[in-house]
């Protein structure tokens, strides 16, 4: 299973992690493409989601490169991969919290102007802080081969670094723990505000026999507000558990099941966001279905024409042959 401080990552675990990385790359790319294609759906929250998807895309690609390469030393490629994954992973935490803060200010505080003014601050913090931390860690030679102690085949904080626990906190874990605390609180406050608003409105409107469509949309939004922090915690908790077990020097952190869950969780954020914000978002889902149906109908419409093409050429050759024969017989009659 492991030798000394090195955790062995088996081939089956690498295959699973590579598959989840591929799903996250596809999911993040789909979020970005839908934002580019459909300009009328470019709201500020979805724009923030695009920035989050960029970081998730970078994380998935860098993790996949690390798992595929099977690093065994502090090579240049290992340091580069560790630096990119450190920056993108830390930035992903900041953008996830930034979206929650924006929704809180916009919905609970009812101030779109203040919420929009925070976007510049979100960019400065979500890109600037991870960049400063990553550059500092690389310059101090803290990024490199970590023997999969708190990773699953990719490079992170060097295992030989005497202060590696401190740099594990600075390059990810402290921001991860803060996200665990911040996200549930913000989304609970948002949900409470929405429920109170619906309760106040229900006192002034008649009771309908059937549920209006707007209520179904609000219920879906309510489900999303519940799932966002839950999914984030469920995906990320396994890396936190392994980090705590590392602090306790417990060999349980090297268990294949825990290592696999860690690999799946850290690389699935892009895929999870795609499911929630593309497939579970009615306007995006409807347009995707319409686009796919149009593509399928066009393919079906072109297929008969392609099938009939050889027969049409043969019919034209036959008709030309008959015309030539008729012309020759007509000349013979005139003679």
Automatic annotation (TrEMBL):
The chain crosses the membrane at residues 15-36, 48-71, 91-108, 120-145, 165-190, 225-248. GO terms for molecular function: cAMP binding; G protein-coupled receptor activity. Residues 306-335 are annotated as: Disordered. It is a multi-pass membrane protein. Residues 27-277 form the G-protein coupled receptors family 1 profile domain. GO terms for cellular component: plasma membrane. One of its GO terms (biological process) is adenylate cyclase-activating G protein-coupled receptor signaling pathway. PROSITE patterns: G_PROTEIN_RECEP_F1_2, G_PROTEIN_RECEP_F2_4. Its main location: membrane. Keywords: Membrane, Transmembrane, Transmembrane helix. It is found in: Membrane. Pfam families: 7tm_2. Residues 13-281 form the G-protein coupled receptors family 2 profile domain. This is G protein-coupled receptor 157. It comes from Xiphophorus couchianus. The lineage of its organism: Eukaryota, Metazoa, Chordata, Craniata, Vertebrata.
């Amino acid at each position: 299973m492991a030798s000394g401080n090195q955790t062995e990552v088996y081939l089956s675990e690498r295959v699973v992690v590579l598959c989840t990385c591929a799903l996250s790359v596809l999911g993040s790319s789909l979020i970005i493409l839908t934002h580019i294609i459909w300009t009328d759906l470019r709201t500020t929250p979805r724009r923030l989601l695009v920035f989050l998807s960029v970081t998730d895309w970078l994380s998935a690609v860098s993790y996949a490169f690390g798992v595929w390469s099977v690093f065994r030393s502090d090579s240049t490629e290992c340091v580069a991969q560790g630096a990119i994954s450190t920056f993108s992973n830390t930035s992903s935490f900041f953008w996830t919290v930034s979206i929650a803060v924006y929704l809180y200010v916009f919905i609970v505080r009812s101030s779109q102007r203040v919420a929009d003014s925070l976007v510049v601050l979100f960019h400065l913090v979500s890109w600037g802080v991870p960049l400063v931390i990553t550059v500092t860690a690389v310059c101090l030679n803290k990024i490199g081969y970590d023997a999969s102690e708190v990773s699953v085949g990719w490079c992170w904080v060097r295992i030989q670094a005497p202060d590696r626990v401190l740099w594990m906190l600075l390059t990810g874990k402290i921001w991860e723990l803060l996200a665990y605390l911040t996200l549930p609180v913000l989304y609970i406050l948002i949900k409470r505000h929405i429920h109170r608003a619906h309760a106040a409105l229900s006192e002034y409107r008649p009771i309908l026999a059937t549920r209006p469509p707007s209520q179904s949309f609000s219920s879906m939004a309510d489900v999303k507000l519940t799932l966002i922090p839950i999914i984030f915690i469920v995906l990320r908790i396994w890396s936190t558990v392994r980090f705590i077990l590392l602090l306790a020097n417990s060999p349980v952190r090297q268990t294949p099941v825990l290592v696999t869950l860690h690999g799946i969780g850290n690389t699935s954020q892009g895929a999870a966001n795609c499911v929630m914000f593309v497939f579970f978002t009615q306007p995006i889902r409807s347009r995707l279905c319409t686009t796919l149906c149009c593509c399928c109908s066009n393919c079906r419409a072109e297929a008969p024409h392609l099938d009939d093409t050889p027969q049409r050429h043969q019919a034209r050759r036959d008709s030309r042959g008959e015309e030539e024969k008729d012309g020759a017989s007509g000349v013979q009659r005139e003679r």
